[in-house]
Predict the structure.
Amino acid sequence: MRVNIAVIGAQWGDEGKGKIVDLLTRHVSVVARYQGGHNAGHTVNVGDAQFILHLLPSGILHAGVRCVIGNGVVVDPEALFIEIETLSRQGIEVDDRLLISDKAHVILPYHRELEVLAEARRGDRKIGTTSRGIGPSYEDKVARRGIRIADLADGADDGPLAAAIRENVSARNCVVGGTEVDWRAVYAEARSVWERLERWVGDASLFLARSMDEGACVLFEGAQGTMLDIDHGTYPFVTSSNGTVGGICTGLGVGPKAIGGVLGIAKAYTTRVGEGPLPTELHGDVGNQLRESGREYGASTGRPRRCGWYDAVVVRYAVRVNGLDAIAVTKLDVLDALHEIPLCTGYRYRGEVLTEFPSNGTVLAACEPVYETLPGWSSPTAGVRRYEDLPPEAQSYLERIEAVTGVPIAIVSTGADRAETIVVREGLIDRWQADAAMPASVS
Ligand code: IMP
């Protein structure tokens, strides 16, 4: 029996998880999202077609693959419907391949309003959120006043759904001055949403358990990245969910032994969107060059991403927190034009070199990256599909990444298309299945 693999961002999100999930989906029959919401933007290029997925697992692009949205995800039904319609126009039908956990929490219009207000109130300390209502929906969940997908089935005008919406809207009306929202309109909207959603709603944990019992192989698809995780990221400049490996168990209702292998995804450099620390950030021309050649603009919000050099302290931290078995290095081709490439191996703090990522934001702010500089290859790697066809300097760069990060590189991506990929370790998934030990290193 094959093992189930988790795909997790090893930086601040936007590492190219969508493409790698899409690539690995041919080995699985179920793809499951366990956290986040439509703040994610997973771009998948297939030939001339481009698909941008926000809430639906990237596996939806493969006919016959079942897709699960777990209880750990927050669902904006309107955003989901738009995504399903957009895919349908592109020739992809969701049909009955989707299962949404009845325990997933819902994002309602007042969540978006509350988020915009909270960000405005923070002023200079704003997080730079995606304004999708993600944080406030998770806040309601933890405060135990949230509305779950299954609650939308309640059609009684004096039932628990009506009462919960009435209370939440009345709280919103106290916080947002100037405008009053009528809870009855929100309730009517929630009920009409249920009519469209119902066909996809069920017990995701039970479905996954039964599928695995029958021999199905599952891919667990993370959104955002380790450094945006609510617990392990650069708090408070993080999202509101656990994108790290533990989120799989809580966000889907599966046990830890269901996870047979963990693949981290890291760009050959680093980006982040929104506010918060980014130790290797580049402010001048080189940063702009990376942004333009990497087309580093948010797939969800269109915001320009901040760019910096590869930070091995960050990815090593992701290896530890997630138990990564291997990494996929994406966007290698974006570095093609550079004559030399600095690689961050540690942080200098008060005369000492730190090699572990500090939890304290004040310490982090005082850290200076320690770089070693490798020669660039000044020749195109875009579209290269065999490791031996990479220029020797590109091979050395990857080997150095592998050495300072501490795990093997399993996949190298040299372009946006499915085909523009080097599988460094052929049969990775089969080997995971046969033996947890990874094969020999790249060199
Ligand atoms: P939120 O998830 O909208 O609350 O935003 C919190 C932080 O996470 C902000 O810095 C966002 O820019 C960032 N963020 C959320 N989702 C993504 C993503 O999919 N990729 C990259 N950054 C993200």
Remarks:
- Residues 160-175 form the longest helix (16 residues).
- The chain has a mean pLDDT of 93.
